[in-house]
Amino acid sequence: MKPSLERLIQSLTEGLIERDAPSRLILLAALAGEHTLLVGPPGTAKSVLARKLHNVFSGGEYFERLLTRFSVPEELFGPLSIKALEDDQYHRLTDHYLPAASIAFIDEIFKANSAILNSLLTILNEGEFDNGTQRVKVPLISVVAASNELPSEGELEALYDRFLVRYQVQPVSEHQFENLLTLSSNSKIKLIEGDKLNPAVIEDIQCQAQAIVLPTDIIQLLHAVRDYLSQNNQYISDRRWRKIVKLLKVSAFTNGQKQVSIWDCSLLQHCLWNSPEQKQALNECYESHLGLGTGFYPERLEKLISTWEASLKADKESEVQRVDNRGHKLYLDQKQQATTEKKFVEWQCKDNEHLYVAPQGQEDLADDAIGYSRKELQEQFFDSHYKQTHIDGRWQHIDEYVRYPENRLMLERMNPEYMEPAKHTDRFVENRVNELSLLQADLKEQKTSLKAFLDSARLHIVEHLWIDSSFKTTAVENLEQSQQQISNLASRIDAVIAGYGNLPRVN
Fold first, then answer.
1. Which residue of 181, 236, 287, 487 has the smallest Cβ count within 10 Å?
2. How far apart are the C-alpha atoms of 410 and 407, rounded to whole Å?
3. pLDDT at res. 17
């Protein structure tokens, strides 16, 4: 099946520039029985893609219509039967209209008015059409819809939700513009009838895809994406999640897998955005989980290693107070010499001048512990002519006053503790190194697993049917960055182990 589908994809992309991704998406959506919305300006090959999709099916009708706000139901569902009206019956002639088509293209889908909307929703969701008093099954496989803009009216939200796959189509890029101008219109790929699809093949694919396993790591990834969307106030209906799982299983089955892989989940970016601006963030959320199946959780490891680095820093910088040979704690005096004296008394200075207390009898002898210089004493407390003041019943000259030690401003100071690096026991260091060695071994195992995962990615992602070429390059680059990241983390652990080995030891 896979080679046949690859040929179908080649036929879809032939003659188009930079349309690999939407070509694969519309075919996968059709295989899953879902519908695709292409958003983009006119002239970007949206209708061409729909016609090409019809060409990969054998038989079945193709229907195409451009809607306007004035479109009437007859344009989509067929005219009323005059003969039936004569018999008082309401019946539409649906041949060659949407209810008879297997593949359809509806341009400007959000121009659908209320007269069209209910019937269109029933066809898209249930695959049925109410024709008069009868509800009939329609042969519709998939609708490719197009719009220049997203819906702004609430009544169109249900219609918008019917399109599981959404893709924003951009004009051809600048570096491919020349190729666009010189592109040949001659078709070189000729599909053989055996390659073409039909309703029976589609039904068989969907039936067998139900048996595809949804592994635990993929369920965890879907949980993580759902939490991310919830945190960003983006609601995704339960029905849509169910359809997404179906799409992932069809992707895995047609790609020859027995279970959904992390690579199938790259399709999430095309199923979960409500506006194109959200797609990049969704893709980044997905890419951040690449390689998690190998046990590599960079955020947890970064936090853990940072904690160890902080612990090593604290252990390196830890200090204890020195003691003398009698066990007395040591301090550093003013000359930075060891002393057992915890305190000392110091004559205070300001601007290189010694300070004094005020003469007895003043309210604040020491000026709130700031003190007075000789000049300040003289100006505030001594006679300006004789430079004397009255103390204890007698006159005292300032020269005499400053000679007495008791008049000096002396304050008690604390000698700083004499600290030295803490020394650690061999047992302490050994316990730390043993804990780190376990983390080191775990990182080594994760590095080996991540390398194997990267090697597998390089081998299998290239051959994946539903991943476009641009994403294949991005995915491999992302894994290579993860590989470099785990190498950096391992180097940091090595450095922490070496740091503990170099700590000062108790003799």
1. 181
2. 9
3. 92
What is residue 306's predicted lDDT score, i.e. its pLDDT?
Answer: 95
Beta strands at 331-332 and 101-107: parallel, antiparallel or unpaired: unpaired
pLDDT at res. 168: 95
Element (DSSP H or E) covering residue 387: none
How far apart, in whole angstroms, are the C-alpha atoms of residue 49 and residue 22? Answer: 8
pTM, whole model, 2 decimals?
Answer: 0.68
Looking at 2.40.50, 1.20.58, 3.30.40, 3.30.465, the CATH number of the domain 298-318+422-501 comes to 1.20.58
Task: Provide the 8-state DSSP code for 127.
Answer: S
Position 64: which residue type?
Answer: E
Please state, rounded to an integer, the average pLDDT across all residues of the chain: 90
Q: 75 phi and psi, to 5 degrees?
A: -70, -30
| pLDDT tier, 303 (very low <50, low <70, confident <90, very high otherwise) | very high
Please tell me the distance from the alpha carbon of residue 231 to that of residue 309, in angstroms, as a whole number: 32
Please determine, for residue 428, whether its predicted confidence score (pLDDT) is greater than 90.
yes
Spatial neighbors of 94 by CB under 8 A, at least 6 apart, are 77, 78, 100, 129, 131
* Pure H helices in 97-197: 114-126, 157-161, 177-181
Distances in whole angstroms, Cα of residue 448 to Cα of each of 81, 425, 486: 70, 35, 10
- Give yes or no for residue 459 having a pLDDT over 80: no
Contact 345, 413 (CB under 8 A): yes
User: What are the phi and psi torsion angles at 445 (to 5°)?
Assistant: -65, -40
- The pLDDT, as a whole number, for residue 367 is 63
- Check pLDDT > 90 for residue 433: yes
CB-based contacts of 105: which residues, under 8 Å, 6+ apart? 46, 47, 50, 51, 62, 63, 64, 65, 143, 144, 145, 146
Sequence spans of domains, the chain: 2-206, 216-289, 298-318+422-501, 331-419
Residues 35, 164 contacting (CB under 8 angstroms): yes
Count of CB atoms situated within 10 Å of the CB of 13: 20
The one-letter amino acid at 464: H
Higher-pLDDT residue of 95, 450: 95
pLDDT at 293 over 80: no
2-206: CATH class: alpha beta
Contact 483, 454 (CB under 8 A): yes
Q: Which two tokens mark 426?
A: 């061999």
Distance CA(16)–CA(184), nearest Å, equals: 10
Mean pLDDT of the 338-362 span: 91
Within 10 angstroms of residue 70's Cβ, the number of other Cβ atoms is 8
* Residue 387, pLDDT score: 93
- In the chain, how long is the greatest CA-to-CA distance? 139
